[in-house]
Amino acid sequence: MSRPKVILRHCDTYDPARIARIIGEGMDELGIRPYGRTLVKPNVVMAHRRFFAHAFTRPEFLDGLLTALRERGERISELCVGERSGITVPTRYTFAMAGYPRVLRKHGVKADYFDEGKQVPVRLEHPAALRDVIFVPEGIARCDFLVNAPKFKAHPWTKVTLALKNYIGIQDDAHRLIDHDHMLHTKIADLQEVISPGFIAIDGIIAGERTMLTPTPYPLHLIVMGVNPVAVDVVCTHILGLDPREVDHIRITAERGYGPIDLRDIEITGDVSLEEAKKRAANLLLTLERVDQVFRDKKSRIIVYIGSPPDTYDYCWGGCPGSLFEAMQVIESFQPDVYRAVRPMHIVIGAYQGDIDARPGEPILFVGDCTRWRGRIHDQQIEISPLYIPREQINPQEATSGDVVSKMMGVVANLIRHRGRPFIRVRGCPVSVAENALYISQLGKVVNPYLHPSIAPAFSYHWTISKVARFLRRRSLA
Fold first, then answer.
1. CA distance 440 to 448
2. What is the pTM (predicted TM-score) of this model?
3. Which of 84, 225, 226, 328 is the most exposed place for a label (fewest CB within 10 A)?
4. Rounded to the nearest 5°, which phi and psi values hold at 153?
5. Calpha distance 299→297 (Å, rounded)
6. How far apart are CA 319 and CA 330, in angstroms?
């Protein structure tokens, strides 16, 4: 069998015409011709020109990609751009903040907002899959040709977010959070069974380092192209100086036969060699630190206590600890001194064994369903029992998840329920980034990013439009 090809091309500017030429040449080299219902899946986990300027696939990149697809799309019956953004934000809002509507109008392309459409079941056949059925948007299920267009970024939970990890964005909020815990890497591998990409083009012109929601820009000046997502991610991890076997979702997906994990089994072409790409990425910072250590290093007024999650893992990389870290990074974008300005509080995650040294008046949060603890708080004997539901007892058909407005109301209601008690219990598996941010802003007396004057007006508008569109769409299907 021929080796899968990965193309590394130099591009140091977000010029749509230049990007279109480079991507078009890559498609020609790979023999790619899109057909049928062609859907482009970018990474728009969050977007804002000021606060989240480097978290998403840039509109200029999307512009060039759509041009290249149109020029080679004589067999395309419908061309769409689809995504589900993160942290419970309407995808309409992030598309607007990313500058996508202008690009879509230019090319006569439809937006497919996965959070507004119907979710349909897809049966998984691999014996190691976490469950038999997984839910995805109808737009993904109807897709004939998928174009995966990720952003080249570091990730604080999975080390990197590239072609494979970008599949997390094909699920709505309710189903996205299922298995988004210490089994996140396996969930990513499961999602590869839904649909294989027909083409991959990674925006690495300006990469993102350290985090995925609030990354620091890093000039990598690369466009990475291919068809096999494992091969593409293997090459990208080598560019970053990583062993792809140490990135669990790449290793697991390769072990399932989706692609090669050895460089010798991959053909690398283009005008940038692998060694040159490594030199460019030599100073790109990755982050895979325990959240309790991060708070200690930053000398934060929040003390985090970490215990083990269920099963045999000692740390839940894909769950509540990572959500807490990203929540603080989001708030820090709006309030740079948040780690020291926040009101002192204590956050406990997992099966923690030890003391909680809290002074009177300092909030104590027990976060996550698996959290358990026994000890004394202000001379009271307290026992926190786990509320964890075993994975096999979770039915995806019954999954629900409120939007950020309902989460705001839920946080307020939970705080009222715990008024007068020495602690606050926060349910969830995992507790989302949005909820972590809301609890910290409310109890810590720091900025609420959702209500920031630079965010709230546009957010409220697109939230309302999204709600109306979702209602009308569901009513038409009834």
1. 8
2. 0.94
3. 225
4. -140, 155
5. 5
6. 17
Q: What is the rounded CA–CA span in Å between residue 98 and residue 57?
A: 8
What digits encode the pLDDT tens for the residues 203-222?
A: 999 999 999 999 999 999 99
The tokens 């890559």 sit on which residue?
A: 26
Nearest residue to 423 via CA among 345, 343, 351, 369? 345
Residue of 170, 197, 4 lying closest to 91 (CA atoms): 170
Q: What are phi and psi of 362, to 5 degrees?
A: -90, 120
Specify which residues 155 forms β-bridges with.
159
DSSP state of 314: S
Please say if the pLDDT value at position 478 is more than 60.
Answer: no
Q: Using CA atoms, how far apart are residues 208 and 160, in angstroms rounded to an integer?
A: 10
| Distance separating alpha carbons of residues 50 and 47, to the nearest angstrom | 9
Whether 192 and 164 have beta carbons less than 8 Å apart is answered as yes
Q: Which of helix, strand or coil describes residue 367?
A: strand
pLDDT surpassing 80 at residue 311: no
CA distance 107 to 78: 12
Amino acid 1: pLDDT: 58
Q: Pick from 311, 312, 390, 315: which is nearest to 350 by CA?
A: 315
pLDDT of 326-354, one tens digit each?
A: 999 999 999 999 999 999 999 999 999 99
Per-residue tokens: 137: 């948007």
Q: Across-strand partners of 112? A: 82
With contact defined as beta carbons under 8 Å apart, do 62 and 170 qualify?
no
Q: Are 374 and 384 in contact (CB under 8 A)?
A: yes
Helix (H, G, I), strand (E, B) or coil at 85: coil
Q: Identify the DSSP state of 423.
A: -
